[in-house]
Design goal:
- By secondary structure, the protein is mainly alpha-helical.
- It is built from 9 helices and 2 strands; from the N terminus they run ββααααααααα.
- The chain has a single domain, classed as Orthogonal Bundle (Transferase(Phosphotransferase), domain 1).
């Protein structure tokens, strides 16, 4: 979860794209066995070819963890965890709202049976209609750190520097169309 960040409105930002696959849509499918164990979709574990739906599975697992505070799948080692992902049905505590459970089931953990969920979810989210998620993720003030693990709040921040020559030598076309550049980063460039 250290590659997923929340802004002060509760919007999710992904901070690491270490392994990305392009053009996985339509009839194009991937077959690479990859991913963080807790978030690997059943299709990958079964060795099936897959589409971007595996990302929705991972997103569903992430939402479950954020709403419930633990992983939906468990095991003492990777083999047991993978078996749990393949065969177990997530447990929903009694205190979780019907709306939250509905989103979890539709967006992530049952995506193969409800294909339109991602499109509808994002349209609702853009209109801030999916309040059941945002209510528990938003900050009450700029200094509210309730959504952060206490362990990380005690760590001393480290400033890392970018090698300008290395950045210039790399193909940056993947970032075309991005409209935001941190003003501090612009000074480095």
């Amino acid at each position: 979860l250290d590659n997923v960040m929340l802004d002060k409105e509760g919007h999710i930002k992904i901070a690491d794209f270490g392994m990305c696959k392009e053009n996985v849509f339509g009839d194009n499918k991937a077959s690479t066995f990859c991913g963080t164990p807790d978030y690997i979709a059943p299709e990958i574990l079964q060795g099936l070819r897959y589409t971007f739906s595996v990302d929705w599975w991972s997103f569903g697992v992430l939402l479950y963890e954020m709403l419930i505070g633990q992983s939906p799948f468990h095991g003492d080692d990777e083999d047991e965890l993978f078996e749990s992902i393949r065969v177990d049905t997530p447990h929903y505590p009694r205190w979780i709202t019907k709306e939250s459970k509905d989103i979890l089931e539709k967006v992530g953990l049952r995506i193969s049976t409800w294909v339109m969920a991602p499109l509808l979810f994002w349209k609702k989210l853009q209109k801030c209609a999916s309040n059941c998620l945002l209510l528990c993720l938003t900050q009450k003030s700029a200094s509210d750190y309730n959504n952060f693990d206490r362990e990380f709040l005690s760590e001393k921040p480290k400033l890392s520097y970018s090698d300008k020559n290395l950045i210039e030598s790399m193909d940056q076309s993947a970032f075309d169309g991005f409209s935001f550049i941190n003003p501090k980063f612009e000074q480095i460039l």
